[in-house]
Write a structure and sequence with these properties.
The structure is a single chain. This protein is an alpha/beta fold. It has 13 helices and 13 strands. A 9-stranded mixed sheet has the order 5-4-1-8-9-10-11-12-13, sandwiched between helices. It has a 4-stranded mixed sheet with strand order 3-2-6-7. It is globular. The chain starts with a helix and ends with a helix.
């Protein structure tokens, strides 16, 4: 394929602003102080979502900034290996690639970040051509936590909204990454003016709004910020789906033997966005995403490439849940 043809090909999902090298401990531990050996991985939730979308047969791209050294080259090669478009990846000799050290644990991992290139993405470096090519623009609150990347994401969200694109935000707020809570609330509120779809976990909601609210109250808060569709994930308690201010469905989780939970949330979100772009209603998209998550939880390491979407839809039909979801949708 000629380069010009590749640039004209539509994208399904464009992720912005957060791509890092994760160094995950080989030792299973809840604290980094007990870890001494690490393996490197492509990191950053949006970048991982782009990879999973590609594995599901979609077209994805990343807009992010890295250094030009070994770690930046590693990230670029990982994206290319998984079929993610790197036309809009910026490798800058004036900075270094952001790295994060993470403990390997079944609980919430301990981490320590060394940020550099990721937050230096400038608004003018987010290509309008990239925004015009894609159907979904996705980012996280990690990318909103520092300037100039914050302004880059909000400008991209605004332009994508004006173009009629789906705007997706992961509200993965962490006070450790973004200590100024009041500033975070103000920026998150501004970003949500352009957001169509969001997937908060119960933990995300508590960190954004504070504890002691019921799931229905958290969902209402996200709608009040501007999100049209809210998929509220509650771990073993399943997922609540709310559209235009009204909870429309509860999708339970199913028991599985968990082998590896790393990246399960990103797999879910990629599955949901992919199924949504396939024209499915929200509940069926969540059922599709559940299939992807279950494969991830029961697979050691990353999911294989070229996952057969038709096979997954066939499983939904066999389960009988797809028909019920269609009627509700």
């Amino acid at each position: 394929m000629e380069a010009s043809d590749a640039l004209e090909r539509p994208l399904d999902v464009l992720t912005i602003g957060e791509m890092v090298v994760d160094f995950i401990s080989v030792e299973k531990t809840d604290t980094l102080s007990n870890a001494s050996t690490f393996r490197r991985y492509l990191g950053g939730s949006p970048a991982n979502i782009a990879v999973y979308v590609s594995k599901l047969g979609g077209a994805s791209a990343v807009v992010a900034k890295t250094g030009i050294g070994a770690f930046g080259k590693f990230l670029k090669s990982e994206l290319q290996r998984h079929g993610v478009t790197t036309d809009y990846l910026l490798m800058d000799h004036r900075t270094h690639t952001t790295v994060i050290f993470v403990s390997s644990t079944a609980a919430t991992p301990d981490f320590e970040e060394f940020r550099s290139g990721d937050y230096l993405l400038r608004p003018e470096e987010v290509s309008e051509e990239a925004l015009s090519r894609t159907k979904v623009v996705h980012a996280s609150t990690f990318a909103l936590s520092r300037e100039p990347c914050r302004s880059s994401v909000i400008r991209a969200f605004r332009k994508a909204s004006e173009m009629g694109k789906i705007v997706s935000l992961d509200p993965n707020y962490s006070r450790r990454v973004w200590p100024d809570y009041k500033e975070a609330q103000d920026v998150i509120r501004e970003a949500y003016r352009y957001v169509n779809v969001t997937k908060p976990s119960a933990d995300d909601a508590r960190r954004v709004f504070g504890p002691d609210y019921e799931p229905e109250e958290y969902i209402e808060m996200f709608h009040d910020l501007g999100a049209e569709t809210v998929v509220f994930t509650m771990g073993g308690k399943g997922n609540l789906i709310s559209e235009d201010g009204k909870i429309t469905a509860h999708v339970p989780t199913r028991p599985v033997d968990v082998v590896d939970a790393t990246g399960a949330g990103d797999a879910f979100w990629a599955g949901f966005l992919t199924a949504t772009l396939d024209g499915n209603p929200a509940e069926r998209s969540v059922l599709f995403a559940r299939e992807i998550v279950e494969r991830k939880l029961t697979t050691k390491g990353p999911l294989p490439s070229d996952i057969d979407r038709k096979e997954i839809y066939a499983r939904l039909e066999e389960s009988g849940e797809a028909g019920e979801a269609g009627r509700r949708g």
